[in-house]
Amino acid sequence: MLIRLQKFLAEAQVASRRKSEEIIAQGRVTVNGEVADTPGVKVDAEKDIICVDGKLVKKAEKMVYIILNKPEGCVTTVKDQFNRKTVMDYVSDVRQRIYPIGRLDYNTSGLLILTNDGDLAYRLTHPKHNIEKTYIACVEKTPSSDDMESFRRGIIIDGRKTAPAYIEIIGKNKLEIKIHEGRNRQVRKMCEAIGSPVITLERVAIGNLKLDNLDKGKYRHLSVDEIEYIKGL
Ligand code: URA
After folding, report:
1. CB 19 within 8 A of CB 26
2. Protein fold of 2-56
3. Which of 23, 53, 142, 207 has its CA 20 to 30 A from that of 78?
4. How far is the CA of 36 from the centre of ligand 1 (A)?
5. Which CATH number fits domain 61-129+213-233: 3.30.420.10, 3.30.70.360, 3.30.390.50, 3.30.70.580?
6. Global pTM?
């Protein structure tokens, strides 16, 4: 497919479209060895060899956004030094080099986003964004209302107080929990701290992005609206 040279350069993150037009006009871009300085020139991103200042520009990779319902018993990494199952073992048919955003414990199941969009990964995991994550925890003992109140206000784990959080009982020994931080094993430690150790833990939502009825071990590509939504979080 033919696209305008400045669009190709902008997508490949050489510069903004406007700046790329300038770079083209300055005669710094070659297409198959010939200087391409005519405005509006089109290129074939699959076949043409495009250089800026003599350096090859690689075609932008297609961005991929998927959600996986991570099962228990696998690590949230691309490779594991101990050869354990990883979340990547559940994803087939994706050619791009995707990786998980954030982490779920080995024994936690639920919603995990995988992408090759480094900007999104950076923004979603940056602590300043405070994105709400919703979990369903089955616990050994239903907490008292006092315990739940301290959970909501914040409790000390690893020597530091947690930010205000949401907790409600939704069934026998079953809790819905929403937190905005992403500290190590945070939900497990918070439940432990109020005397209700976790038996099973599942993440069911990140912001408004929900697992819904995606089966464990299955994944799906996000819709255009969902991609827009998570980029705006
Ligand atoms: N909190 C935990 O304790 N574990 C997870 O995997 C996610 C949040």
Report:
1. no
2. 3.10.290
3. 207
4. 53
5. 3.30.70.580
6. 0.83
| Ligand 1 contacts CB of residue 133 (under 6 A) | no
Write out the chain's pLDDT in tens, 233 residues: 899 999 999 989 899 999 999 999 999 999 999 999 988 899 999 899 999 999 999 988 889 999 999 999 999 999 999 999 999 999 998 989 999 999 999 999 999 999 999 889 988 888 788 899 999 999 999 999 999 999 999 999 999 999 999 999 999 999 999 999 999 999 999 999 999 999 999 999 999 999 989 999 999 999 999 999 999 88
Q: Identify the H or E element spanning 199.
A: strand 198-206
What architecture (CATH level 2) is domain 132-206?
2-Layer Sandwich (3.30)
**Tokens representing 162?**
């947690």
What's the CA-to-centroid distance between 170 and ligand 1, angstroms?
A: 19
Task: Tell me which H or E stretch contains 30.
Answer: strand 29-31
Active site residues: 105
DSSP 101: S
Q: Is the CB of 186 under 6 A from ligand 1?
A: yes
With the most atoms of ligand 1 within 8 angstroms of its CB, the residue from 188, 189, 192 to mutate is 188
- For 135, the enclosing helix (H) or strand (E) is strand 133-139
